[in-house]
């Protein structure tokens, strides 16, 4: 990527009438580790490499574990039982759990985040360390194990743009794509700040213009050892802290506490007023992070004497807060487009959280993850007094209100509980308008979103490893229901059939009979045709539901059990075509 493509970096050019003509000697190249042909680099930048110590001299820089088969040994953290995960391992000898945090790089993000994966390191990695091919050759490569379970600075190996460096306090195992440096406690904030600055991006570009951030290149970044620059620690602590708060504000984080829209510091009488207050806070936080990052850059630019090479400016798209829409949705949109997208996703996150409360994953009475074990074991209804969790973790998701406890009705109940009931209609209207879906009324819009679009959004949030599974009768959507993965047990399908599917068959029969009477009594052609269309639809749904009930009964009799350690992909495939998006979720990934 050229300097002109990086809005935060401007390299000075030689004094020449031809801006595309450069002069550099072979000795100049030797000052940069690896001797790259970085002809555009200045004397001052080359001097930085020559005069300062390398990062590896004060903080070991290491590549980590190669499992040999990530599909077998690596999971998204939310796939397995929480009881089997050690989220913050206190000792490298604590192997009573099976799953441990695993830094794998991930998308471009700075300062904090991308804590998503876990790896099977039960019994000190016995299974991975014993993983061989059919000839007995070891397929895995558990290297630099002495650095596992330590706080670190980690980064993404490949980036389409910039050097995404993060402080990791999860004491994780790490792999090649999430290579890491291990500074002393004294240096960790200073070095995180340096590696997150545009100075480091300039150094990396000089060593490796391909922008593959290899461990060998990172190890050679020149470090100024001068105590007068250590005051930058406070800037870096703030940047890390705010990015940590931002990361943990979304339910994809294992440290998620509550939906920010319902936080007592922001919640007002209506959802709209609450959002406006929260949106103002997000905007202020983004600008403050921008100010701190630019001050961070300015300090390091001055320290290395690169004022003529680099600018401290940080474009908004590089402020890697999820609440920053320019980063979240990419540069180039209007303010109105950003606002529409952010408001839409905030409404969707509210709906997702409400469904989590229906399922018992979250509660309005307790912070954080309340239930994420396996098989419903240990589930306690007493944890959900303000807004009761569903009794069985099965919530119908239908286009018509066939059941009083379906998702749309329960969402309405949730909104009336989270905000004053007298503002229910106003809050439903705000949610409906935020979703950007056409419809005759807020309730119809919300029900349409839940029946037709929620699951696709859920798959995106959970990276095609859903925790709420959509059982569906087929294209006619005669019956749909969400089932919470962690509460599923061998009796779930039988309960779904007896409590919902069989009663719905009776409801269809009654509705068809009622429509026939209405058709016979219709006084206008238009009214009669409308009733006939509805009858035709329900007749098709009735036939679809009959076939679904037969398949459901067959699988219910098998009393299928799940082993959450196998992951969503394996378990999802046990239900034939009763589940939505089976082909997409169960698709085999390339090694």
Write the layout of secondary structure elements.
Blueprint: H1 26-30, H2 43-51, E1 53-54, H3 55-58, E2 61-62, H4 70-73, E3 74-76, E4 99-103, E5 117-120, H5 122-129, E6 152-155, E7 165-168, E8 173-174, E9 180-181, H6 188-196, H7 198-207, H8 215-219, E10 222-223, H9 232-247, H10 271-304, H11 325-329, H12 335-359, E11 394-396, H13 407-418, H14 424-435, H15 442-452, H16 454-461, E12 468-472, E13 480-484, H17 492-521, H18 525-558, H19 568-572, H20 582-586
Parallel strand pairs: 4-8
Antiparallel strand pairs: 1-10, 2-9, 3-5, 4-5, 6-7, 6-9, 11-13, 12-13
Helix pairs in contact: 6-9, 9-10, 12-13, 12-14, 14-15, 17-18
Describe the model.
- The strands form four sheets. This protein has a four-stranded antiparallel β-sheet. The chain has a four-stranded mixed β-sheet with strand order 3-5-4-8. Strands 11-13-12 form a three-stranded antiparallel β-sheet, covered by helices on one side.
- By secondary structure, it is an alpha+beta fold.
- The relative contact order is 0.09.
- The radius of gyration is 28 Å and the shape is globular.
- The protein has two domains: 272 residues, no CATH class; 225 residues, no CATH class.
- The chain is built from 20 helices and 13 strands.
- The two termini are 29 Å apart.
- α6 packs across α9, α9 runs antiparallel to α10 and α17 packs antiparallel against α18.
């Amino acid at each position: 990527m050229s300097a002109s493509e990086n809005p935060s970096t401007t390299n000075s050019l030689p004094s020449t009438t031809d801006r595309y003509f450069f002069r550099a000697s072979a000795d100049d190249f030797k000052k940069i580790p690896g001797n790259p042909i970085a002809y555009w680099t200045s004397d001052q930048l080359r001097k930085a490499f020559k005069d300062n110590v390398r990062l590896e001299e004060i903080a070991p820089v290491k590549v980590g574990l190669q499992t040999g088969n990530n599909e077998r040994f690596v999971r998204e953290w939310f796939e397995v039982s929480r009881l089997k995960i050690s989220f913050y391992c206190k000792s490298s000898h604590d192997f009573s759990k099976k799953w441990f945090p695993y830094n794998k790089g991930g998308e471009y993000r700075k300062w904090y985040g991308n804590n998503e994966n876990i790896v099977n390191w039960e019994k000190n990695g016995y299974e991975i360390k014993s993983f061989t091919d059919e000839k007995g050759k070891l397929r895995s490569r558990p290297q630099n194990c002495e650095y596992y379970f330590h706080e670190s600075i980690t980064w993404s190996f490949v980036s389409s743009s910039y050097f995404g460096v993060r402080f990791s306090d999860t004491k994780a195992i790490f792999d090649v794509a999430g290579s890491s440096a291990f500074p002393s406690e004294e240096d960790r904030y200073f070095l995180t700040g340096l590696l997150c600055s545009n100075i480091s991006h300039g150094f990396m570009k000089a060593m490796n213009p391909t922008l593959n951030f290899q461990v060998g290149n990172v190890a050679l970044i020149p470090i100024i050892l001068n105590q007068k620059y250590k005051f930058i620690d406070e800037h870096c602590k703030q940047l890390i802290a705010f990015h940590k708060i931002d990361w943990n504000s979304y339910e994809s984080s294992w440290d998620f506490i509550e939906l920010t829209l319902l936080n007592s510091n922001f919640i007002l009488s209506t959802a709209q007023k609450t959002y406006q207050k929260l949106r103002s806070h997000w905007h202020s936080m983004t600008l403050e992070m921008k100010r701190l990052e630019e001050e961070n850059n300015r300090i390091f630019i001055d320290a290395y004497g690169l004022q003529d090479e680099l600018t401290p400016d940080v474009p908004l798209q590089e402020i890697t807060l999820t609440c920053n829409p320019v980063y979240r949705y990419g540069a180039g949109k209007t303010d109105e487009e950003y606002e529409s997208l952010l408001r839409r996703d905030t409404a969707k996150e509210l709906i997702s959280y409400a469904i989590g409360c229906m399922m018992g994953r979250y509660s309005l009475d307790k912070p954080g993850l309340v239930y994420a074990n396996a098989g419903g074991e240990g589930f306690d209804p007493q944890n959900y007094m303000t807004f009761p969790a569903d009794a069985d973790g099965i919530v119908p998701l239908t286009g018509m209100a066939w059941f009083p406890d379906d998702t749309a009705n329960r969402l309405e109940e949730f909104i009336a509980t989270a905000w004053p009931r007298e503002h229910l209609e106003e809050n439903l209207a705000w949610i409906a308008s935020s979703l950007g879906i056409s419809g005759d009324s807020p309730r119809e819009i919300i029900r349409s979103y839940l029946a037709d679009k929620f699951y696709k959004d859920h798959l995106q949030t959970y990276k095609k490893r859903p925790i709420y599974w959509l059982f569906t009768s087929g294209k006619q959507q005669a019956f749909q229901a969400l089932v919470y993965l962690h509460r599923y047990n061998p009796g779930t399908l039988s309960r779904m059939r007896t409590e919902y599917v069989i009663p719905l068959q009776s409801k269809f029969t009654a509705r068809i009979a009622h429509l026939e009477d209405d058709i016979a009594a219709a006084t206008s052609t238009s009214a009669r045709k409308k009733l006939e269309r509805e009858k035709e639809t329900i007749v098709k749904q009735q036939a679809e539901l009959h076939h679904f009930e037969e398949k459901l009964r067959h699988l219910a009799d098998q009393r299928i059990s799940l082993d959450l350690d196998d992951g969503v992909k394996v378990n999802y495939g046990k239900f034939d075509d009763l589940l939505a998006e089976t082909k997409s979720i169960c698709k085999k990934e390339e090694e």
